[in-house]
Design a protein that fits this description.
Elements lengths: L2 H36 L5 H22 L9 H24 L2 H22 L2 E3 L1 H18 L7 H27 L4 H28 L10 H27 L2 H23 L6 H22 L4 E3 L8 H5 L2 H11 L1
Antiparallel strand pairs: 1-2
Helix pairs in contact: 1-8, 1-9, 2-7, 2-8, 3-6, 3-7, 4-5, 4-6, 4-9, 5-9, 5-10, 6-8, 7-8, 9-10
């Protein structure tokens, strides 16, 4: 295949991966907002456990159909990933409960510099001046359109710190494990989703009761609420998969920076479907600034020297390459 045609195919797959992630992420946010705000299902951790249980069923079906080949992931690596991932979920839920919405948004924005720091320290990545400036523009734009009231307390700061670092580590680890062990997104999900589902479904009811003082088993599971739960779990399959695909194809930093497009879309769709309260000139200007920064980041980071790894390469699992497991996973991702 000619170099130009390979580049065009890669660009098309990259764009499709981002679109897949944006559509599923925005969709699940809107569905969960309706489920929790309208129907009162406030059990976020348990719901996330159901998401991973549904994702596990998807990976089992694909493995039975032969689309996912057997792969190996050391137990120690799996345990570390699950700890980071579950701390991220619990930390974000607790941070939202203990902090103001404004400080919660600031904490989410802090994931970008923390992810950059992890890449600089662990992967020896260097960023050009334009790439750094574009990230700053994205941070300012998103902050302008999302951060309102800001108040913080000691326990809220602790929860936010745990959430930021665990989320950044979990997203870094997705990219790290895929490269080190030559795992495709489906294969990695096949290893991590069952462990997360089991741990979150065991922990979720107790944590949700602590956060909401409500029992998940006492909820009124009417037809409409069950429909939204099933819809949320179905969309979550795409959300979980698209996150792994995007981070695997790019990096955690790129996923965080360009991922704030989802924040902008959620705001716009929220104004459209749930009312225009809060929509004013500075919010619109913040959105435009954030989008400008994302476009600038995409151009700056793709240029030679914009973002490059120095004297470091992740080892790959020779057994996985020998048995041709990676190409199968990549081929399935391209079909998706």
């Amino acid at each position: 295949m000619a170099p130009a045609s390979k580049a065009n195919k890669k660009a098309a797959l990259d764009a499709a991966s981002w679109m897949f992630n944006i559509v599923t992420s925005v969709g699940i946010i809107l569905v969960n907002k309706a489920l929790m705000a309208t129907h009162g299902f406030s059990f976020a951790t348990t719901l996330t456990g159901l998401h991973f249980a549904t994702t596990t069923l998807m990976t089992l079906v694909l493995r039975w159909l032969g689309y996912i080949q057997p792969t190996q992931l050391p137990l120690s690596e799996l345990v570390k990933f699950v700890i980071f991932a579950n701390l991220s979920i619990v930390g974000m839920n607790v941070s939202l409960m203990w902090n103001s919405v404004g400080f919660y948004q600031i904490a989410k924005l802090c994931m970008i510099p923390v992810s950059c720091l992890l890449e600089v320290i662990l992967d020896k990545v260097r960023y050009s001046r334009d790439t750094k400036l574009s990230i700053v523009v994205v941070l300012i734009g998103v902050a302008v359109c999302t951060v309102t009231d800001v108040s913080v307390n000691a326990r809220g700061l602790l929860a936010a710190t745990i959430a930021v670092w665990s989320t950044s580590l979990q997203q870094y680890y997705v990219h790290f494990l895929q490269k080190k062990y030559a795992l495709g997104s489906f294969s990695l999900l096949g290893h991590t989703a069952p462990a997360q589902a089991m741990s979150l479904l065991l922990l979720g009811p107790f944590l949700d009761y602590w956060l909401t003082n409500k029992r998940v088993d006492a909820f009124d599971y009417n037809v409409t609420a069950v429909f939204f739960i099933i819809l949320s779990c179905t969309i979550a399959i795409g959300t979980n998969l698209s996150q792994f695909i995007c981070i695997g194809r790019f990096t955690a930093v790129s996923f965080q920076v360009l991922g704030h497009m989802k924040t902008i879309l959620v705001l716009v769709l929220g104004f459209i479907f749930f009312g225009k309260e809060g929509l004013n000139l500075h919010v619109v200007l913040g959105m435009l600034l954030a989008v400008l920064g994302m476009v600038w980041y995409g151009n700056a980071s793709s240029k030679p020297g914009g973002k490059e790894r120095k004297s470091f390469s992740l080892p790959t699992d020779s057994k996985a390459q020998k048995h041709g497991l990676l190409p199968d996973s990549k081929e399935l991702e391209e079909k998706v």
